[in-house]
Amino acid sequence: MATGNGLASLGVEGASAAAHALSLPAEEYGNNPQLEVMWAMKAYQHAEIYFNLISSVDPKFLKLTKLDDKIYSVFRKDFEDLNIQILDPELLKSAEAKEKWRPFCNQFEGLVEDFNYGTLLRLDCQKDYTEENTIFATRIQFFAVEIARNREGYNNAVYNAKKQSSKEGQS
């Protein structure tokens, strides 16, 4: 994943102000473009950390939340046929999909911190975060899909590619 200056470009004071601003209730803001940029930077930072994690650690050993088992079992009960290897954005964003996702997501309110915060989710799990391969989803959707990808072996491609490139770099 390409790294940019991100939050570091804000400096200590700017990053502190951004962290404070992001902790305030949504009602405190209108449509503030600066706030949208801060949310996007936070989502990008989360995506970058996660991709580095699945590139460095065998994904089957990762635990993303204290409720991974529950999230996975409810997700696979409610979305048993969802292709998580290559996600169809319509199955996350269409009006019909939102009606199906809403009860799933809402049952984790108060259980999973920031369950409905915006997060970046890769469409094709074998590829990096790029503009073409990324969709905006809620954090609980991210956890559900990525826990399933880790447990079902789909994220192994990222881990194995990084391991292979490290071996080739040592040769």
Please, could you describe this protein's structure?
The protein is mostly helical and about 170 residues long. It has one domain (about 5-170): yst0336 like fold (Orthogonal Bundle), CATH 1.10.3560. It has helices at about 10-25, 35-55, 70-80, 90-95, 95-105, 140-150, 155-170; strands at about 120, 135-140. The longest helix has 24 residues, at about 35-55. The two termini are about 25 Å apart.
Helix and strand string, N-terminal first? HHHHHEEHH
Mean pLDDT: 84
With strands numbered from the N-terminus, the spatial order across the biggest sheet is 1-2
CATH topology (fold) name: yst0336 like fold
What is the CATH homologous superfamily assignment? yst0336 like domain
Q: How many extended strands?
A: 2
CATH class group? Mainly Alpha
The CATH architecture classification is Orthogonal Bundle
The total count of helices amounts to 7
Q: Runs with pLDDT <50, length 5+?
A: 1-8
What is the total domain count?
A: 1
Strand fraction band? Answer: 5-15%
Helix and strand layout, with pairings?
Layout: H1 11-23, H2 33-56, H3 68-78, H4 90-93, H5 95-106, E1 118-122, E2 134-138, H6 139-151, H7 156-170
Antiparallel strand pairs: 1-2
Helix pairs in contact: 2-7, 3-6
Can you describe this structure in just a few lines?
The protein is 54% helix and 6% strand.
Kindly list the characteristics that best describe this protein.
7 helices; Polysaccharide biosynthesis domain-containing protein; PBDC1_metazoa/fungi; 54% helix; mainly alpha; Polysacc_synth_dom; two-stranded antiparallel ribbon; PBDC1-like_dom_sf; yst0336 like fold; 171 residues
